[in-house]
Design goal:
There is one protein chain. This protein is α+β, with helices and mostly antiparallel strands. It folds into two domains: 6-10 and 92-173, Roll (PH-domain like), CATH 2.30.29; 14-87. 46% of the residues lie in helices and 22% in strands. It contains three helices and eight strands. The chain has helices at 14-48, 54-87, 151-161, and strands at residues 6-10, 93-98, 101-104, 107-110, 114-120, 129-134, 139-143, 168-169. The strands form two sheets. A four-stranded antiparallel beta sheet has the order 1-2-3-4. β3 (101-104) and β4 form a beta hairpin. α1 (14-48) packs antiparallel against α2.
Length: 175
């Protein structure tokens, strides 16, 4: 039985595409709830307008609408992040692990040049990223969510092709 000469990891745009669609639906839902909030606030104002002064009316509409606007803003920011993640996905190969070293997003490093192969925690709830650090400090990384290969398979390839000198370090995940 012979081992393949390299592990080729491609991009998988499906999770990012699904996230963009989900966030789009969230924005639509938040807009509907904003309209519902406006209608409810207006209905309460019509019902209680004799007992509400100008400041109470401002508080009623301010709090009622601000709550929905905040959630709409959060949904919009999530949608922008999802769109940005989808835009980073290029067709083709994301990384290659071979006996010569690792090629990741246009950066090739031989095994002796690699200081660390690890997984870094995603920012603000984003996906963790696989990163390869050069001995001189340069870092190449790619989000795990866009790869078509599981991290365990990549780790097995890194251990095998580096002859046991490297492994995927998960200490930055901060369990």
């Amino acid at each position: 039985m012979t081992m393949s000469e390299q592990l080729v990891v491609g991009f998988n745009p499906m999770p990012a595409t699904n996230k963009v669609a989900y966030c789009s639906r969230q924005i639509r839902s938040r807009l509907i709830w904003l309209l519902v909030s406006i209608v409810i606030c207006f209905w309460i104002w019509l019902w209680q307008r004799q007992s509400l002064d100008a400041a109470q009316t401002a508080w009623l509409f301010g709090i009622g609408i601000a709550y929905s606007l905040i959630w709409l803003g959060i949904a919009y920011l999530n949608w922008r992040r999802a769109k940005a993640a989808l835009a980073q996905i290029a067709p083709g190969v994301a990384m290659t692990v071979s006996r010569a070293g690792i090629w990741l997003q246009g950066t090739g490093m031989a095994w002796p040049e690699i200081a660390r192969v690890g997984i870094k925690r995603g920012r603000f709830g984003g996906s963790p990223a696989l990163e390869v650090q050069h001995n001189q400090g340069a870092v190449a990384s790619v989000s795990l969510a866009v790869l078509d290969t599981m991290p365990g398979s990549i780790d097995a390839a890194v251990r095998s092709y580096s002859a046991g000198t490297q492994k995927i370090d998960t200490s930055k995940l901060g369990h």
